[in-house]
Specification:
By secondary structure, the chain is α/β, with parallel strands linked by helices. It folds into two domains: 1-110 and 228-324, FAD/NAD(P)-binding domain (3-Layer(bba) Sandwich); 140-222, Guanine Nucleotide Dissociation Inhibitor, domain 1. 34% of the residues lie in helices and 17% in strands. It contains 13 helices and 14 strands. Strands 9-2-1-13 form a four-stranded parallel sheet, with helices on one face. It has a four-stranded mixed sheet with strand order 12-11-10-14, with no helix packed on it. Strands 3-4 form a two-stranded antiparallel sheet. The longest helix has 15 residues, at 142-156. The chain is globular and about 65 Å long.
Length: 345
């Protein structure tokens, strides 16, 4: 398989890509096999199609979107997001495609003060925790109780936040050099957090299972604006992958479960299963866009390096649970938490 030269987009190019496409990279038409019809595979397909290349997109499921999955088995007009449900402002490329397709974006509410929390054996709410940090039943120092979990984090990251405010994204180069080997836990220990405060931070920041993972990744998300100015697509997030599909209907093959990728001297062969049997596609290039949890089951020939297999195995995916409640008429009494929650067993 020949080597594909990857050209990194400039900052100015990203916003106009959805409307104008990339600058052509090849003088001749290529045949490209894309594994996966999630958003990454669909973007790759659309941009390559714009340049006139021949495409085959193999999708294991019977729909496009991957982890963008909107449930619509409700009354007309009702839907629920089982997968991706928000788009950060800094995801300019995604927002650009939404606007290019004419999709209506609206603000996404990130946090509700009356959202119920069951913390350390107590029923409470976010607002109650913020206003009564001294009542949190964790083993905290007197200073930690006085400041509260939010102010503690602000103090711990003050110098880093000031650097980002002054130098923008360029500040992460120096931040990475200084803290590149730190986990979240190691950083909090260095900043004077007690064990109780570390535990509390992990729970309230939804990072409890990730406390030993990279600090830099965490800082890029929390301080880099990844959770600020969130948007959602009015009417359902599945409208985005469906908009791509309108331009790629003839290229996407559903229920095609890839199991092997073989690199050749002059191209690549991808083998897959369908209800009708085992098939293969050969092309000049292959773009693999599936999650590592799926990728680890592929049979690569020749095999990947030990380092690549290790990276594929080591990537951590966190479980996430959503609860959607529907079907209650307006005059129905409910035991669901309204304001201060009341849990029943």
């Amino acid at each position: 398989m020949t080597t594909l030269n990857i050209r990194i987009m400039s900052t100015l190019e990203i916003p106009r890509t959805p409307a104008e496409g990339f600058t052509p990279s090849f003088d001749t038409r290529k045949r490209v096999i894309i594994i996966g019809a999630g958003v990454a595979g669909l973007v790759a397909g659309l941009e390559l199609a714009r340049q006139g290349h021949e495409l085959v997109i193999l999708e294991a499921q019977g729909r496009v979107g991957g982890r963008v999955y909107t449930l619509r088995s409700f009354a007309p007009g009702l839907y629920a997001e089982a997968g991706a449900m928000r788009i950060p402002r800094i995801h300019e490329l995604t927002i650009g495609y939404c606007r290019s397709f004419g999709l209506n974006l609206r603000p996404f509410v990130m946090e509700c003060p009356q959202a119920p929390i069951y913390l350390a054996g107590r029923r409470t709410t976010w607002s109650h925790i913020d206003q009564n940090s001294d009542q949190i039943s964790f083993d905290l120092t007197s200073r930690e109780r006085t400041l509260g979990h939010r102010q503690l984090w602000l103090e711990a990251t003050r110098d880093i936040r000031l650097s980002i405010q002054r130098y923008g994204q360029a500040a992460f180069r120096d931040i990475s050099e200084r803290y590149g080997d730190y986990s979240i836990r190691e950083f909090l220990v260095e900043r004077g957090y007690s064990e109780g405060a570390i535990e509390l931070y992990g729970i309230l920041s939804y990072r409890e299972s990730n406390m030993n993972t990279s600090l830099i990744e965490h800082l890029r998300e929390v301080l880099g604006g990844a959770f600020e100015d969130m948007y959602e697509i009015a009417g359902g997030m599945d409208q985005l992958p469906e908009s791509f599909l309108k331009y790629l209907q003839n290229e996407v093959h559903f229920d095609a479960q890839v199991f092997a990728v073989e690199q050749l001297d002059d191209g690549v062969t991808v083998r897959y299963r369908t209800h009708g049997g085992v098939f293969e596609e050969t092309g000049d290039y292959c773009i693999c866009t599936v999650p590592f949890g799926v990728l680890r089951h592929f049979d690569f020939r020749p095999g990947l390096s030990v380092q690549k297999y290790r990276a594929i195995r080591a990537l951590n995916y966190n479980p996430s649970t959503k609860l959607d409640v529907y079907g209650l008429p307006s005059n129905t009494a409910s035991n669901l938490p309204m304001g201060l929650p009341e849990f029943r067993t």
